[in-house]
Amino acid sequence: MKVLVIGLGGVTNGGKTTLAEKLKNMLPNCDIISQDDFFKPESEVETDERGFKLYDVLDALYMDEMVTSIHNWMKSPASSDVVTEEPQKTCDNLKNIYILIVEGFLLYNYEPLNKLWNRRYFLTLPYEECKRRRSTRVYQPADTPGYFDGHVWPMYLKYKNELEENPSMQVDYLDGTKSQEELLSYVYSDIIKELNKLRE
């Protein structure tokens, strides 16, 4: 039994969850872990001097729990609620390979996770498009006025710069303004190449 761990990271509202769900439907033995499931409760998230809740930082998440969940999945993927029927045209020789897609906005800036990835993807968006998409979403708690410019976007740039300055980090940057079909087609083909390598 072999496992393939795929990171799908990047900007808020970049299309990570949609892409992960579509890939799950196309790939054999595929499961998703979402970073959004590991947010601390609001009472435990720090507030800065402007009154902004600091959600877009690692401290707002139970990262240890997330790492544990991924390790547990890797130890026994077959016992998770993975769908094992063969979707589309994948062949019998992929039956013993399990795929985990981990999606979230802060995946590659946390050292314990960086040993786990087989492939890393990072969705980007220009400022205006990201702000427009973010304004159409409803969050709990809701974004306060100025929150995007004061916290969300600066944190995205900070963590993206950290990645770009790390030469050992192999990340495939994806343009989130491309159509979902185009992004899906690219990432799916790339994962199939990885699966074929694992099989050899």
UniProtKB/TrEMBL annotation:
This is NRK1 kinase. GO terms for molecular function: ATP binding; metal ion binding; nicotinate riboside kinase activity; ribosylnicotinamide kinase activity. GO terms for biological process: NAD+ metabolic process; pyridine nucleotide biosynthetic process. Keywords: ATP-binding, Kinase, Magnesium, Metal-binding, Nucleotide-binding, Pyridine nucleotide biosynthesis, Transferase. InterPro entries: P-loop_NTPase. It catalyses: beta-D-ribosylnicotinate + ATP = nicotinate beta-D-ribonucleotide + ADP + H(+); beta-nicotinamide D-riboside + ATP = beta-nicotinamide D-ribonucleotide + ADP + H(+). GO terms for cellular component: cytosol. It comes from the Eukaryota. Pathway: Cofactor biosynthesis; NAD(+) biosynthesis. It holds the Pfam family AAA_18. Belongs to the uridine kinase family. NRK subfamily. The lineage of its organism: Eukaryota, Metazoa, Chordata, Craniata, Vertebrata.
